[in-house]
Write a structure and sequence with these properties.
The chain is of the alpha+beta class and 393 residues long. It is built from 9 helices and 21 strands.
Length: 393
């Protein structure tokens, strides 16, 4: 698939846009001087324990609080050794930012430190080897497990990502060695650092997209920000990427954001109504608990029979629904009210298209099922703020 990643500036933010076949699919806005980012590892101080919700609130930098669930973190990484494993106010612990401070919630923290690579992920506090469920071939799963088994880790686990499928053992082990260096560095130095120290920085939104999608001749990375261009040049070799796909765009009179018409696309991505080529449209209504998307026939008048026309509109709407989830960064529960169809093969085809499009998402998206009221239920993992929230930052 032909992809382009565009990195530019907008309203004191770094804007990252992902295009697939020249269609804008993902947008991310990050303040240029972002203090906290998903993936950051800190030495934090426990401020207080709330027993009725089984959670601790941990200050990771002065004035920035995080939510640390105790049930999910039974073992804590204390900076100062203790005689027992009980966590109390005043303890200094090593934590990683797992999710952004969505809406009114604090930053979500975990003690299971994660070191992600392209092919593997090393996680402290787990055990064993896990293979991506998307790798179905039994022989390939066995081969990858054998490669990972050469690097056993006490108190940590390896996860084999989908991208490892078909890769040589040399490439995978080279990445594992790099992750082990990062892991051992933090394990050995954390006890000698002061409170609120950032031990590791999480990957920027553009770095995450580049390392996921830019491996291949069909991807291009373009930026008009000189500092980011220099940063990427230094990192491309480490990421195993060719600098030939990286381009620096320079035109003060016509910056990238104007060249690509991104501002108008941001405006459209914040509107409730989304028009489809057929003349049908979507109505997207975010609420506190979930997001509701309604599919309407609008101006779409097909020459086929009514059932065929509804099927055609629904298939077009399914593709656009998945694109809008990515573009607007909608997360949580999503309910889609498609136009009612009677033919079982049409319903099956609709589900297949939804699952196929959801699989393109870099964030875990699941098509659950149709409810008894014929509504389609989907979920998308909560990791980052919605586009609307990012714009307001």
């Amino acid at each position: 698939m032909k992809r382009q990643i565009v990195i530019t500036g907008w309203q004191s933010k770094v804007l990252t846009a992902l295009y697939e076949e020249d269609i804008l699919c993902e947008l991310n806005l990050e303040p240029q001087k972002s203090r906290v980012r998903v993936g950051d590892i800190y030495i934090g101080k426990v401020k207080h324990i709330v027993q009725n919700i089984q959670a601790a609130f941990v200050e990771i930098t002065p004035g920035v609080m995080g939510y640390y669930p105790l049930k999910e973190n039974a073992v804590h990484f204390f900076v100062n050794p203790k005689k027992n494993d009980k966590i109390v106010a005043g303890d200094e612990i090593v934590v990683q930012v797992d999710k952004e401070n969505l809406k009114t919630k604090a930053w979500f923290l975990t003690g299971r430190l994660s070191f992600p690579g392209r092919y593997t992920v090393l996680t402290k506090g787990k055990a064993g080897i896990q293979v991506s469920s998307k790798i179905k071939d039994k022989e390939e799963r066995s081969r990858l497990t054998e490669i990972i088994s050469d690097r056993p880790m006490e108190g940590a686990a390896w996860m084999i990502r989908t991208e490892a499928r078909g890769q040589s053992s040399e490439v995978i082990r080279e990445e594992m060695d790099r992750l082990l260096v990062d892991y051992n560095r933090i394990m050995s130095t954390a006890r000698n650092r002061t409170c609120f120290t950032k031990l590791m920085s999480g990957a920027s939104p553009y770095a995450q997209l580049i390392t996921k999608f830019a491996h291949g001749s069909d991807c291009r990375v373009t930026t008009d920000l000189s500092e980011i261009y220099e940063e990427l040049k230094e990192n491309f070799e480490r990421w195993g990427l060719s600098s030939e796909i990286l381009r620096y765009y320079k035109d003060d009179a016509y910056p990238l954001i104007k060249l690509k018409g991104i501002e108008s696309q941001i405006d459209r991505a914040l509107q409730k109504r989304v028009w489809l080529k057929s003349g049908a449209y979507l109505v997207i209504e975010p609420t506190e608990a979930l997001t509701v998307i309604d599919v309407n026939t609008g101006k779409a008048i097909g020459k086929q029979k009514m059932e065929e026309n509804f099927f055609k509109i629904n298939i077009e709407a399914a593709r656009e629904v998945c694109r809008q989830l990515r573009l607007r960064n909608i997360s949580g529960i999503v309910i889609v009210d498609f136009i009612n169809m009677k033919e079982p093969e049409h319903l099956k085809a609709l589900m297949d298209i939804l699952r196929e499009e959801a699989a393109r998402d870099s964030i875990q998206t699941t098509v659950v099922d149709r409810t008894s009221l014929h509504l389609m239920e989907m979920t998308r993992k909560k990791v980052h703020r919605s586009l609307a929230e990012q714009v307001r930052l």
